[in-house]
Amino acid sequence: MTRRPGPLSSTLAKSSRNDGHGNQINNQILLNLPSHESETLIPKLEFVRLRVHHLLHEVGDPLKSVYFCNSGMISILSVFPNGKSVEVGLVGKEGFIGLPLLVGFRTAPTRAISQLDATGFRVDAETLISVLTRCPALEQSLQQYSQIFTMEITQIAACNRLHEVEERLARWLLMCADRVSSNSLPLTQEFLGQMLGTRRSSVTVGAGILQRAGMISYNRGDVRITDRKKLEDAACECYALMQRQRERWRRDAKPPNVR
Length: 259
Ligand SMILES: [Zn+2]
Prior knowledge:
There is one protein chain. The two termini are 37 Å apart. The chain has helices spanning 10-13, 28-31, 35-41, 125-132, 136-162, 165-180, 189-196, 200-212, 228-234, 238-252; strands spanning 46-50, 55-57, 65-79, 85-91, 96-97, 111-124, 184-185, 216-219, 222-225. The protein contains 10 helices and 9 strands.
């Protein structure tokens, strides 16, 4: 992790794409803030590098810090008492880790771990709560993201129950590629199985189907999407349904500073 404390430079403050310490801001919630809220929040953020499989929080942990995901991906996992876990959500540069705090809840109901090497902007929970009282656009953006995240985990829950492994794998790879803005995804089969809640052998079968159809190339620990259009056709309808709902809400939404 890298800590970059210090005041926000006035020159860089004019650029909402930089945190004032040379770290590019990719997080869409931060990028969309009005300038006066950006100037309030961004100097309080700490840029952090999260190695692959870094644990951000475990089930039941107090939410001491929250994260605006900036690159890479964070998996949200449901964890059972016997240790088994399955991914129920995926957070990229569109998102935020720490949603329960928005409504006064202080502990995490899920596990959050980084996938790939990730970066984020971290702030302690009390600071965020204090900033929210002065930043209505930030609060509204986080509430809107909370609804989007809930919509996605609802769809993924239905997907995990109803759809075939190769359809789910295609849907999941598309979601990952969107979040990291890359068609190259360094993911092992074991990890894919864990994320999809299925046996490694089922992932092998699913990945084989997609590879033989020319949609992906798969080598040990590395998945590359080679034909995105075909992969979208192979994915179950969940991917398109989630995209459509996000777009519908984007059109519905008032500008974030209008209440
Ligand atoms: Zn599905």
